[in-house]
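question for whoever is on the cluster today: can someone run the full assembly for these? two chains, 740 residues total. i dont have access anymore since they changed the login thing
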Amino acid sequence: MKSFSKSAKRLGLVLIAVLALPSVLFAAEEIKIGVLFPLTGGAASAGRELRAGAELAADIANNVMPDLNMTMAKNAGIKSLGGAKITLIFKDHEGNPTLGADLAKKLILDDKVHGLMGAYHSAVTKAVSGVAEQYGVPLINDSSTSPDLTRQGYKWFWRATPHDNYFTKDLFEFLKGMTEGKVKGLAAVPKKDITNLAAACEKTEWGSAVAELIEKFAKEYGFELKKSILYGAKATDLSGEVRSLTAVKPDAMLFASYGSDSILMMKTLKDQKAQTRVLWGQNAGFEVPEFVNTLGDTTIGVLTRTVFIPKVGQVKPVAAKVNAMYKAKTGNDLSGASARAFTGLQAWVHVLEKAGSLKPEDIQKAANAIEIAGEELVVPWQGIKFATTGEDIGQNILGSGLIGQYQKRADGKIDLEIVYPFNLATANMIYPFPKF
Amino acid sequence: MDILFGSIVSGVLIGMVLALVALGLTIIFGVMDIVNFAHGEFLMIGMYTGLLTAQATGMDPLFCLPVAAAVGFVLGVLCYGGFVKYLLRGPMIAQLLGTFGLMLVLRNLALLFFGSEDRALHHGLLVGKSFDIGMGIILSATKLATAVLSILSFGAVWLLMNRTKIGKALTATALNRQGARYMGIPTERMNMLAWGIGGATVTIAGALIVNFWSVTPYVGLIFTMIAFTVVALGGFGSVPGAFFAGLVVGLIMEIPGFWDFFQLSFAIDWMADVPMISFKYTWIYVAYFVIMLISPRGLFGWKQ
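^ ran it for u. tokens below:
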């Protein structure tokens, strides 16, 4: 009797072991992605947007959402990895490249992340991409636009967003279109009316690159850049800069500003009653919700390049749905920043799905071979496909930009309307820029 | 021509505010021979005080000056009574490093409480208002009000120092501490008062500046540098010196504007390629260096 009970116990233990085996063998692993964004500091408002965008994408990837027509919404987790869920580990780099590099190392060595995403500020992304390259950890960038980032010849860096070469070219195509009468609701503007340009860009990696591109394209398109200045994004006073810009009586003022500096710039322009016909911002600080919330009517007529405007939802149902989810979560519409963070993480999901493994080499191979269709995305791009040869290695070659203009709706709310590409325009352009 | 007049007026207005920033530094040095490296951090605290009081009470920021002055006075007195007093027993280097440490402590406390985000005032009676008076001169209402209040503050401090018993006691302590003590002046209390007045003037300046500059916990550094230049130019310990030197430094900050004026007036192409505005603060450092080289006693000399 004793030996029977002993055998029964053994049998029971074996049975438990056998039953438990599959769940041990096929347990869904956790996929850790380290995400570096500026959650405090001058660009904190953009950081909050970026974080919310990435979180929403992770949420959709980790759960089944049948209503949403996206591949990543069809499965709970990464199917090819046994339904493994994505965990985002956020780190705040405060816009500081040294801190960004240190945090990236910490994520790789201490948190043992499988991949990285970030870091918004191009200067920080440059530092982080160096660390990723050193440790052989894949880094998919969502929203840094300095062209240099994909010209470093790195093997572990991919960028989903178009870079400033595309965006700045868009600006000059737009200005050219203004002189050719292509802009909705606007008769052809004589070129002499918008020929004199003045630019002010923040002086880190991103702004300096934009300043160079403005100079390059101004020459190419036959415009005259009368003044180009670089300033510190952490500046607390920009009155000298604005006086310098207005001294040349520019027809168009062009800016590349990060966060609080874009608001300070606009306030100073208003304070000094600056006059210009076109006022354009290179995304970033010009399209975070704080920009409109703080400045109100002062923003009417301001143009900004972006990759997402809520009006895109009118032609892309998937964008409208995701925008509604984002609005329910944050109270704001998706912006260029949050839409790109969302898309960056979406790219990560597709890459992981294709890799079916968490080995860096497999992820690398998958990223180089990935092709995501435009219909999957909230942004109005043709899709995502990273270049594996040529000048821009790792750059998404299917991205494109938009130019929006802040206009007041009938209900008094200020919204971005699409003015470029011309065929997507949703409103007549306000021209010239209203006097402050 | 527009940019020339615009730059001069802007330089003079901001110069008056910079003078007030430097006033506290020169008073403390005048009375105690101690250089306060945490001066810019006092200003930063003044900026936060003005900003937070205005936001919390809904009061116009210009009416928050008494609160800022009170906070600055108490801060100055506490710093002296709880810290600087003990530093005085040590050598000069201990005083230098001590106030440097105070600077780090205050900056990091501000980081802890206020975070590293920029904050700015967007609403107020005068915020965002300006007047175009022709010839390229656009007077910002906040800067004009700040300059006027700065002159009034200067006047008040001048009267206090020259027309009251307390001021005379402070001056006596500054001139000869031991002699003043023999005459029955409580020099220890005078030191504390000097820190209080120094703190109050700089926090008033901070609460004025926040009307048109944004604030972060790091904003103090540039102001410490500016205040040092003003005090070096005006002469350590000299109140009128600080005022005139403030105006000169305000104009030095407008050098890029004068550069633009020459470039545009005489159409000198190569001047357009020099990124002067990117180095607008550099001229303050250059001025500091030149003053130290040519006239270490400043315009009005050191206290005698």
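summary bc i know u wont read the tokens: The two ends of chain B are 43 Å apart (CA to CA). The mean pLDDT of chain B is 86.
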